[in-house]
Design a protein that fits this description.
Domain DUF4439 (chain B): 15-150
Order of helices and strands of chain A: HHHHHHH
Number of domains of chain A: 1
CATH superfamily of chain B: Ferritin, core subunit, four-helix bundle
Biased composition (Pro residues) (chain A): 105-115
Distance between the termini of chain A: 46 Å
Helix content of chain A: 55-70%
Region (Disordered) (chain A): 29-48, 86-118
Pfam families (chain B): DUF4439 (PF14530)
Order of helices and strands of chain B: HHHH
Organism (chain A): Blastococcus xanthinilyticus
Strand content of chain A: under 5%
Shape of chain A: globular
Oligomer: heterodimer
CATH class of chain B: Mainly Alpha
CATH architecture of chain B: Up-down Bundle
Largest sheet of chain A: none
Helix content of chain B: 55-70%
Strand content of chain B: under 5%
Number of strands of chain B: 0
Structural class of chain B: mainly alpha
Amino acid sequence: MSSPPLPGPRTFSRRTLLAVSAAGLAAAAAGCTSSPPEDERNAVTSEQADELAAQVAVQETLVRAYELALEADPALAAATPELADQAREQLDRLQAAAPGSTPEATPPPDLPPPGQGQAWLRAQVAVAATSHATAALAQTGGRAALLGSVAAGLRGHEARLA
Amino acid sequence: MADDGTTSLADENTALDEALAAEHAAVWGYGVVGAALPPGERAAAAAAEAVHRDLRDRLIALLAERGAEPALPEAGYALPFPVLSPVDAASLAATVEEGGVAAWLRVLDRAAERSSRALAMEVLGAAEVRAVGWRTAAGQTPVTRALPGL
């Protein structure tokens, strides 16, 4: 008898380790509907919609922080070319999950201090990650999963910038 | 009725049980990872294995408390690729963490209780940080993910 696979990402849907349907989560996060239980989980209250729109604004602020930090520190930009793109990808997904939202992003509270752009950026990332993680607790279904994924991704950015 | 007023605990328990299955596999997987690393480089693997053992035990207790039947570990697992070097070990560890992230994201998707979402959030960030470390050790690029688990 063969052993069950220890799955990697491509085998998550097969057995033991990962029964996750990434496509299903993605669809839910984008506001699509399917079976009744999932419909219930993805039903959104006006308060939840407002909170999700606020997280779009948080992410817009972070994307701007990336722009400022990388403009100020070309070496940092060269060393971490993927991070800003990933932050923008996260923003795109949040905007798709909150269609019609008109968030008012605030600029980062200050400019990166000369020679300290990496530490400054890491602090901005930490603020956004904590905000998304906290917001995920008040959401349900695909919106909670999306915010959780974005928050986890930003924790990875923090580690990369350490 | 769950505390979000919309869904029962059945879906949540299923997702938690799937996360438990992922934790069983992670504990096993880190045993392989540790064995493939030089003795002086095993500390991170040992620490990660301890985290997964703790999560496994917390999930077993939680599911038992709810009257659900916790998943048992498989009798054996098949590796997704041969683990013959420290680089292979790091790749396996990254794979294990990515699997855990996906499973816990499913918990977030299906959770009815805020406390379960809080547990999932507690797990997710730390798992992705570990994954970044292992991807770095494995020489993978990029080492970060925009949307881990999705």
